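Can anyone check this?
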Amino acid sequence: MPVDPDLRTLDIEIPTQPEVLVKLSLLMAAEDIDLPAMSALIETDMALAAAVLKAVNSSLYGLRGRVQTVHQALTYLGMREVSAITFEMGLRAAFPPAAELEPVWKRASERGVMMGRIGQMLGVDPWAAHSAGLFEECGKAVLYRHASAHYPAMLRAAGSDAELVQLEHTAFGVSHDALGAALCESWGLAPAAVASVRHHVEVQSTLKMPEALQRRGVSAISTVASVLLSEPERLEEVAHEIAPQASLDEALVLRAARRVVEQLQQASEHER
């Protein structure tokens, strides 16, 4: 999905993809996954490797015993989840630390894991789903860095992302969904992930997918994950509306969503 060329003329900087993530993408695209090479690549950046291990050992993954090396993490969690964690840490590192963005990054971690696992259960590209979840709100970080004196007030004032988009358009002429899609595209994410990020506000607020949206599975999973994080009591309603639009079986979507919630609850309980 091409991003609006007008974004190229705005005075809003899209951070470039870190070199280690460029190389990681190439390794992931190879037919035969080389786990030793992947772990060695991540470990070349000590700060990144430390951040990955800290994330792997969090309650989100609920591993039994502490993981001490990236290679162990790959063995226990698998290539996709460790690569996604690496992308998440690389994405965070591309922006200055800010307390106002911590909720964004926390949701990114949880949503990415949810979407990747639901995608795997439904036969929808789990890497595209996981990365779309991680990057869904990254446009907010772009705007925060661009206007750190003013943007936090917008985040506080908006009662929903749909309201936030209107405030952003008024202030900047562009919104975080479009900027997030531009960042995804420039970092080489799958077209399905780019499309999901571009349309997530519209789809989640209306439960209607635009006609132009061609790769719908990831977008549907994004909408399901969003309701799991914010209004889980609406899961059946949302699955009923969104699954048919993406040619997904409603019962299978519900089963996958509930199974992932169980997995994450068990991981959290194990941490305690």
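Reply from J.R.: I decoded it. The chain has 15 helices and no strands.
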